[in-house]
Amino acid sequence: MPKALITGITGFAGSHLAEWLLANKKDMEVYGTYRLRSRMDHIKHIQDDIHMVECELKDPRSVDEMIKAVKPDYIFHLAAQSFVPTSWNAPAETLIVNQIGQVNLFEAILKHQLDCTVQIACSSEEYGQVYAHEVPIKEDNPLRPLSPYAVSKVGQDYLGYQYYQSYGLKTIRTRTFNHTGPRRGEAFVTSNFAKQIAEIEKGIKPPVLYVGNLQAKRDFTDVRDVVRAYWLAVEKGVPGEVYNIASGVTYTIEEMLNKLLSLSQAAITITPDPSRMRPSDVEILLGNYDKFHQQTGWKPEIPFEQTLKDLLDYWRARV
Ligand SMILES: C[C@H]1O[C@H](OP(=O)(O)OP(=O)(O)OC[C@H]2O[C@@H](n3cnc4c(=O)[nH]c(N)nc43)[C@H](O)[C@@H]2O)[C@@H](O)[C@@H](O)C1=O
Predict the structure, then answer these.
(1) Interface pTM, i.e. ipTM
(2) Residue 278 CA: which ligand 1 atom is closest?
(3) 240 and 310 co-located in one domain
(4) CATH number, domain at 95?
């Protein structure tokens, strides 16, 4: 049976991808990496159907042993330090986890001479400073990263390109724009606002919702559409290539907040919280996904309103 390995299976996208593979690729064995301190709540419901392997990506020996034991046919490399604000507080850790972690993975694949396809979770943050005439953003747009996180993803992206060119490692780079849905980490804006609304509805917190920069524009895709794209990337994508995964629609964070508020009866006051502002924030992300659509037929299917409703209901069931 072919084997799919998901680094970061205990996380947001990783757990959705595991679910998608189990439901749609019945002939595939699903493996995932975890660290001793990983929280398992996102995968508890599927843990009998997946194989979990302990692995610290920062440690070459740990990665080597994991790759030798699993020998995957497909790797979805989703594990990362993925929160932009954390990357200003911990830039070195962000670079080590994201870039050195990926080098360790690549080197182990080469050492054990695996003929596997590797999807790399790159990011729209790599585009960073985007000018008005450059949207919707295509893959050949200049990369002008605006945070240590974004730089770490540029590094992952170019390492993917370089290992393909140098060694023929079958890497496929996906530059995914913002994505959300149930299980989104509560630090990220959609989830943070949805959780605050759910807490206000339950009377756990006063009716004041704290916000950062509401003028930023983001292109949101449902995580369930994104993980379907990750499978199509390894199935139909061209090794060495890079693809945008986006919805092709952009909203200000304020518009997104208003959509969430319209799903609630609660009377809520919006209050700026200066600690939520960033040293530099990407002003606009709006992706062109034509290249990926032409290669794989993928397009997003779940309307943003449905995604936000599912996210709010997720928090309503948890607070
Ligand atoms: C593609 C990319 O997508 C994500 O990165 P992100 O765009 O930084 O995501 P976020 O949800 O933290 O912020 C979105 C926007 O919302 C603004 N914003 C306003 N008020 C709050 C607020 O209260 N909290 C947060 N977190 N953001 C706020 C904030 O300033 C920013 O403009 C990651 O998955 C990343 O891994 C990735 O690759």
Answers:
(1) 0.99
(2) 30
(3) no
(4) 3.40.50.720
